[in-house]
Write a structure and sequence with these properties.
4-stranded mixed β-sheet, two-stranded antiparallel sheet, globular, about 50% helix, about 290 residues, alpha/beta
């Protein structure tokens, strides 16, 4: 991505290096990334994929306050701030078209674990969105793990991950997130999972919508960027993770969508930039 000269967001709270003794959970936007990292670390991603809201975790080692950040870490912090600024610019305009006012989320950069309104958050769950405080939380080490352990590197892949979490904030502002969670609470696990899939695919779509308009405004995309993001979407599909972990997949347990679905909805947003095309809730399972 071409980001030279782009502004950084003023809505970033850099808490990297601060101490925290316990970790507990994540918002729905972080579940698929949590499963991905669980698999990388030798665990069973199904234990993560079958959860919807907050998953209790164990204790972690406290982080030192005097951490010295590498040049790469500082570059990733600046990059994340620039991407957040880009989402602010795009969604402010898109909300104006809908006759609404966009209130941007905060972004907290942290190391190891962090306190949130949704409970304690852990770096092991990857980036996540907490609707309780309307904040995206990111431990930047996740991006280096994406690159080194998953082969899913590239700046636009990282941007897609951030924009996906901001997509959950868009859902929150539009009322979609709370409505979906309310319905899920009264359904069986299998039926609730189907709603979860629609939430996640819509967040993928919104990430694509952001990229479409960001590129129109700033000519930010370079050759290979789209392919990077689509490859990332493939590697975080429920079926891909389950098959890599167990050798087979269980569609009834899917909470985020298949590799094909995630790639398709991201691509639809990227190709159209039309928010009205992203109502994943109006389609049958077969049509998704």
């Amino acid at each position: 991505m071409k980001l030279n000269g782009r502004r950084e967001s003023s809505n970033v709270d850099d808490r990297r290096g601060q101490s925290s003794g316990k970790v507990a959970g994540m918002g729905i936007g972080g579940i698929i990334i949590a499963a991905l990292l669980t698999w990388v670390m030798g665990g069973n991603p199904l234990s993560v994929l079958q959860n919807i809201d907050i998953t209790q975790m164990g204790n972690v080692t406290e982080q030192a306050n005097d951490h010295e950040f590498t040049e790469e870490e500082q570059a990733l912090a600046k990059f994340s701030s620039q991407i957040l600024a880009g989402t602010e610019d795009v969604w402010t305009e898109e909300f104006k078209k809908m006759g609404r006012t966009y209130e941007p989320p905060k972004m907290v950069l942290y190391t190891g674990s962090v306190s949130t309104s949704c409970g304690q958050g852990s770096s092991s769950v990857g980036p996540f969105y907490c609707s309780g405080d309307q904040t995206v939380y990111i431990d930047l080490s996740f991006f280096t793990q994406m690159k080194s352990q998953l082969g899913a590197g590239g700046d636009f892949s990282y941007a897609y991950v951030i924009a996906h979490e901001v997509g959950h904030h868009v859902q929150y502002l539009l009322g979609t997130l709370n409505e979906a969670h309310s319905k899920m609470a009264s359904l069986s696990e299998a039926e609730a999972n189907k709603i979860s899939v629609r939430l996640e695919l819509q967040a993928d779509f919104y990430a694509g919508v952001w990229a479409y308009h960001d590129n129109e405004k700033f000519e930010s995309l370079e050759d290979g960027d789209v392919e990077e993001a689509l490859d990332c979407a493939q590697k975080i599909g429920d079926n891909y993770l389950q098959e890599r972990s167990r050798g087979y997949s269980q569609p009834e347990s899917f909470t985020h969508g298949t590799s094909e679905q995630r790639s398709r909805w991201l691509k639809l947003g990227l190709s159209t930039g039309d928010v009205s095309r992203g109502n994943t809730f109006k389609y049958s399972d077969a049509q998704l």
